[in-house]
Design goal:
5-stranded parallel beta sheet; about 60% helix
Amino acid sequence: HRIPDPVLNRYNYFYKILTVRALIHMFLLKCIAFCIHTIFPGKKMAHTNIILTGFMGTGKSTIGRRLAARLGAIFIDTDQLIEERVNCRITDIFARQGEAAFRQMEAELARDLADQCGLVIATGGGFFTNPENIKVLQQNGNIICLSATPREILNRVKKQGQTRPLLQHPTPLKRINQLLQEREPVYRQFPQIPTNGQTVDQVVVAIINFLTPDS
């Protein structure tokens, strides 16, 4: 059946609004990053992005926000930014378009972020399963992997109360172990910062100490 013109026109109108909003967001991020680069030319860590990877529930977003505040950097959550771009929750993207479509959105975002500076980026757990994302973000950034035990990951995810598409499984702990084994070759490429039994501030300090060993 053909979609009525008024409905189609309204859809196109809102789609254009969302597209313009996403473009403005990215433009503002680039402007802020440029200002940081100009105002603080002597601060190496303000130039180089810090990218946090690791499995879901390892604390990437929470620690990333605190780290960005500590460094005066701009915080980016890739999952949140993708949701804003398409005006759709991650769970709905997986349900309606599939994981492959979501991974393509991640790849497009990686390219957009690659030429910016002064960012702390918290990536989704499967963001770096695409080697091209590693390649483009390492050009101007240090990638660090946060880790936690499978049991701790499950406990944190439960406390967050969020629906995780990849954990819609009868035995989520078994699924976590399976996914960790699958992604282990990816995660082990990067420096490891454990988060088990650590406060947010302790992990932030560990990251800063790792990146500035001579300070």
